[in-house]
Amino acid sequence: MKKILSIVLSLASILANAQRLPDCLRTSEYFKDGYQALVERMLLPESTEDEYDDLRFGRIWGIVILPSFSQEESVYCLRTSFGFKLVMRLPENSIWYTARHITYDEKKSTTPSGIQVSSMERNNVRWEDVELDMNVKVRELNITREQASVLSELFRMAINTSTSLMSSYESYSIVTKENGEKEIQKYEGLDGETTLFFYNGCAAECWSPEEGKLKRLIDIRQAIRDAIDNNDNGIIQDALPEARALTLEFRELLPDWAKEYLELSE
Fold first, then answer.
1. Model confidence pTM above 0.90
2. Domain containing 66: what range?
3. pLDDT on residue 116
C-alpha cells in the first residue's frame, strides 16, 4: 500500500512540475508538398489577371482543415466590390484517400496461413499530376469590414508567433523529476485533424489541441464555420471579443523588438 501511495505521489509531483512549451502554432511548409498542393488547387481560389486574391499574392487569409478520416475543407476571406465575404469549400469525398488510389496501386497477397492481406505500392503517377473530378460544395457569407479585420489580425499574429521546433502533431512538456533533473516528454497524436492557418504568404498549423490558446483558436475557427453553416455573421460578431483578446495574447509571444515595431507602426 505504501509503495502504491509513493508511486501515486511521484506521478502527481511530476505532473505538478510539468512545464508546457510555448502554446503556439507550428510553422508549415505552406502547400509545398504534393498532397497539400492538390488541396490548394481544389479548395482555394485561382488567380485571374484582374484579381490577385490567391495565395501566391498573399491577398487572402483563411484556414484549411485536414482531418484523418473525412473530407478536407477550406474557409477563406475575399475582398469583393461590395465588401468582404467568407467562402467555404467542402469536397464530396476525401481528397487524400481518392488521390491515394491514383498515386498508389493496391497489391493483395495471401500469407502461408491463408490470410489475405493488402499493401499499397507507389506507382508512376505523381501527386502533382493528379486531377480529381470531384464535386466541391461552395457556401458563402458576407461579413463586415470590422469582422474581416479582427479575424485577419488574429491569424496574422498567430502565424507570426509560430515555431519550427515542433511538428504540428506533436506536443512536448518539460518535466522535473524527483532528483531535480529535467527532461522532455513527447506526446504524438495519431487520429485527429490538422488545421492550417494562412495569411499574407505565410502559414502555420496545429493538430487537435485540447487546451490553451490553440484550443481557443480552434473554437474561433469553429465559430466561423458555424456562421457560414447558419448564414449568420452574428456568430462571428459574438466571437470578436475573444478574437481580440487572443490576438493580444499571441502578441505577447513576440520578441521585444517586434512589439516595439508594432507599437510604432500602428
1. no
2. 19-95+134-265
3. 67
